[in-house]
Amino acid sequence: MLSLLLLAPPCFAGTPLPDAPHVVTQGEGQASATPDRARVTLSAQYRHAHAAVAKQSVDRSVNAFLELAPRFGLTPQDVTASDVSVSEDIEYDDRNRRIPRAMPPTARSR
After folding, report:
1. pLDDT tens sequence across 60-88
2. pTM, to two decimals
3. Tens of pLDDT, residues 17-43
4. Where are the alpha helices (DSSP H) in 8-50?
5. In whole angstroms, how far apart are CA 31 and each of 28, 34, 36, 38, 107?
């Protein structure tokens, strides 16, 4: 008897559709548009024993970008520059002890 129930057509099992009159709809949509804005963030970093040398290198990199910006349709009003910072570069070992940096000796003439 069980084998007969398993072989019964699915129409006897009922249907997920209601018995009363109904409307079934299905749809799909897609839209595409060209973006009118993009935000790009750039960062320039340079390490050197002398902060002034590092800043000059970063300044050259930023200025090179600003010279290229018009080729990409950017105007000076489109570019915002901020957050210039200089900080000590400190490294720590596995036991959280500061690793000393040996500075090269400098000779001074008198």
Report:
1. 998 998 899 899 888 888 888 777 788 87
2. 0.50
3. 778 888 888 889 999 999 888 888 888
4. none
5. 11, 10, 15, 19, 69
CB atoms within 10 A of CB 21: 5
Q: Which residue has the tokens 């960062």?
A: 43
Distances (CA, A) of 9 to 5, 13, 14: 9, 8, 10
Q: DSSP readout, 45-106?
A: ----SSHHHHHHHHHHHHHHHHHHGGGGT--GGG-------------B-TTSPBPPPPPPP-
Tell me the CA distances in angstroms from 49 to 17, 37, 59, 60, 97, one per residue in order. Answer: 77, 39, 17, 18, 21
Query: Contact 91/98 with Cβ under 8 angstroms?
Result: yes
